[in-house]
Structure formats: C-alpha cells, structure tokens
Design goal:
Layout: E1 2-8, H1 16-31, E2 37-46, E3 49-56, H2 59-75, E4 87-92
Antiparallel strand pairs: 1-3, 1-4, 2-3
Length: 103
C-alpha cells in the first residue's frame, strides 16, 4: 500500500466548506474509480490548513491520482483557494492496523 499526504497552507478559509463539499461530491467518487484506490481523507485543520491522505496499491497509481487531483483543482477553479503548492509526503505503508468488527 502506498500513501500520499498533501498539506496545503494558506487556504482561503472562506472557501473550505465549498472545497469540502466539492471534494465529497465530485473528487472522491472519481478517485475511488481509479485503479488501486484504497481510501481518501480530507482534513480541515483550521487556520488555513487543509491536508489530504490518499491510499493506493502502488506508487504509480498514487502518482496518477495526484495528477488527476491537480487537474480537478484547476477544473473546479480552486487554484485561488489553494494558492500555495502542497507539502507532499509519500511512501510505502510499513505498518498499519485496522479494527476488526465485532458482531
């Protein structure tokens, strides 16, 4: 599993609700159809900081999703709401644990 974390600073706080809504309505459904999709999370940390976490099976699939998301930002005209390039952390997941559902 490959993870990419993007941290956006200087986000236009008057548009974070709009950004969150559009991510849920249009970006996540499209990302989830990409090969190797393992999950996507958007975090509003406040004070103009928004981070995203995306999970894909391979680095190549994660890279493709990044290009797709960058295009989505331009198409949805969020380039002014996200004025600074993200700080990106990417790599292989080397440890994880998910809870097991108890029935």
């Amino acid at each position: 599993m490959h993870v990419t974390i993007r941290r956006y600073d200087g986000v236009d706080e008057s548009r974070t609700d709009e950004l969150s809504r559009k991510v849920n309505e249009t970006l996540v459904p499209k990302l989830s159809k990409l090969s190797g999709f393992g999950g996507y999370y958007l975090i509003d940390a406040g004070n103009g900081v928004v981070s995203s976490i995306s999970l894909f099976e391979t680095a190549e699939q994660a890279d493709e999703s990044g290009r797709f998301a960058a295009s989505w930002v331009r198409d949805e005209k969020f380039d002014t709401a996200l004025p600074n390039p993200p700080k990106i952390t990417t790599g292989n997941v080397v440890a994880h644990k998910t809870p097991v559902a108890v029935v």
